[in-house]
Amino acid sequence: MTLHWIDLTVLIGYLSLVAGMGYYFSKKNITTEEYFVGGRSFSGWVIGLSLVGTSISSVTFLSFPADAYKTTWIRFITTWSMPLGVLIAAYMFLPFFRRNKVTSAYEYLEDRFGPSVRVYGGVTFIFSQLVRVSIILYLVSLLLHEITGFSIVTSILISGVFVAFYTIIGGINAVIWTDVIQTIVLVLGGLLTLGVIINHLPGGLGQIFSVAIADGKLSLSEMTSSGFRSIGWGLSITKKTGTMLFLVGLTSWLTEYSANQNIIQRYAAAKSTYEARKAMLVCVLSSIPIWAFYMFLGTSLYVFFQIFPTIEATEMLDGTRKAEQIFPYFILNFLPPGLTGLVIAAALAAAMSSLDSSINAISTVGVVDIYRRHLKKNKKDSHYLQVAWIIAGCAAIFMVGGALILNVSETKTLQDTATILASITGGGLLGLYLLGFFTKYGNAKSVWIGLIATSLFTTWTILSSRGWVPDWMHVPFDLYYTGLIGNIIMFTIAIIVAIILTDKKKLI
User: Fold this and answer.
1) Using an 8 Å Cβ cutoff, are 288 and 52 in contact?
2) CB neighbours of 36 closer than 8 A, spacing ≥ 6?
3) 55 lies in a domain?
4) What's residue 338's pLDDT?
5) Degrees to nearest 5, angle at CA 71 with 66 and 76
């Protein structure tokens, strides 16, 4: 596809704005305090919108509409627990991070359990984020390739180098402010797309609701070989229920707001605990409507292609093609010039707001938790700032290299392997933090035993899911609950071992 000159103008204008913001903020980055946490001077609404941008990646941009297009709104249940998870984090977790003006989420782990646990937290975070940014860059490059006609390699290089440029020079200031802009662009692009759909449908907005309700597309049902099946609301580990999906979501949000450096760094950048809590409220009040909107966009696309069917859209519905292609397909074929460029910008925004946050967070953890803490102590701050730039640059190079490898890998086994390793090493982090926040038990020994047990459990579930174990060793629960059970194992084993070893420590 050759982009219309209006679309190119819109796209270039958006990218120029983001690059200009990176250059502008680069002049402020003369200390690591400014580079990592923006001088701890941000207001709540700015941090809140930045949190929204960080949470919404290109995966969300593609998968939420795809899920609602092909199935129902069952995925949305996990977002219902966000308010409860954030409320708990705001009053139970946040004080631990604000108390000592931390920069990294893993400084707390050393205070509570010792330096080895802090290094474990930092290293597993860096590894998981390197995997994440490579996959996200690859996915957004596929999208850019489909929409613009650029080769995938060119798309990877353009996207990767651009994000690396403004993130490395601009620091957390550029990350936060560009995330705000990217969140606005993401919402605007989606709203205008929905407007085009409503304008084309003979019955307008009302037709979307009538067709969707008649076809069960707004229900909370699970897709089976015989059609949609309504889920129950009981407690079960062998099948999906509304209550269990809510608990899975709660586990995810509690992990996100207790152990994810991308989030904790925003806590640290806020000017006060009050502003940090305000940011969390802004994030909740913005994120849930945005996710609901993108689910509704997928439902609207379903109705649109029921009224105006195409072979491609039908194949995405029946599984011949991936449902994640539906939104790019609509952008490519049904949006007018100018709007196409804006929605492409929204797609890039969804990816860049995750990529820039992760690159900056990797740099922060690399310097604060590893380099300055264990490798080079008592150096000048300017030295650590230079190292931060180097680490961010290396992360960006890894990101681009990982995406390029994914592109040439026929089976995409690298993505599977990397995701598996990240799951094994990163499991149980919520259980670890809950042990520290809410008990007096545990030190490095008991925690390491818990971490090893959790890793073995996660490994077992992965082997079972691939049929690499005998039948009698297959997991007796729905694999959707692996993270929830893993955190319970981590917490339980660590506290039992700590009690046996009479390993007790005062809460800090």
Assistant:
1) no
2) 103, 171, 172, 265, 268, 360, 363, 364, 367, 368, 388
3) yes
4) 81
5) 75
Do residues 334 and 468 share a domain?
A: no
The residues facing 504 across adjacent strands are 441
| Residues of the chain below pLDDT 70 | 1-2, 57-59, 225-227, 410-426, 503-508
Q: How far apart are CA 236 and CA 257, in angstroms?
A: 26
Domain identity same for 383 and 475 = no
For 174-189, how does the pLDDT look when each residue is reduced to its tens digit (9 = 90+)? 889 988 888 888 888 8
Q: Which SS3 state, helix, strand or coil, does residue 422 take?
A: helix
Which of 160, 144, 162, 72 is CA-nearest to residue 331?
Answer: 144
Based on the domain organization, do 145 and 172 belong to the same domain?
yes
Which one, of 430, 436, 475, 431, lies nearest residue 457 by Cα?
A: 475
What are residue 223's phi and psi, to 5 degrees? -85, 125
Closest CA to 267 of 149, 361, 370, 145: 361
Q: Return the HEC string of 276-341.
A: HHHHHHHHHHHHHHHHHHHHHHHHHHHHHHHHCCCHHHHHHHHCCCCHHHHHHHHHHHHCCCCHHH
| Domain with 29 in it | 5-408
Domain count, the chain: 2
Contact between 430 and 255 (Cβ < 8 Å): yes
Residue 140 falls inside a structural domain: yes
Q: Check whether residue 361 and residue 462 sit in a common domain.
A: no
- CA 483 vs CA 162, 429, 431: distances in Å: 34, 10, 10
DSSP-assigned states of every residue in 117-139: HHHHHHHHHHHHHHHHHHHHHHH
Q: What are phi and psi of 310, to 5 degrees?
A: -135, 160
Q: Is residue 422 part of a domain?
A: no
Given this model, what pLDDT does residue 435 score?
Answer: 92
Q: How far apart are CA 418 and CA 420, in angstroms?
A: 5
Residues 111 and 231 in one domain: yes
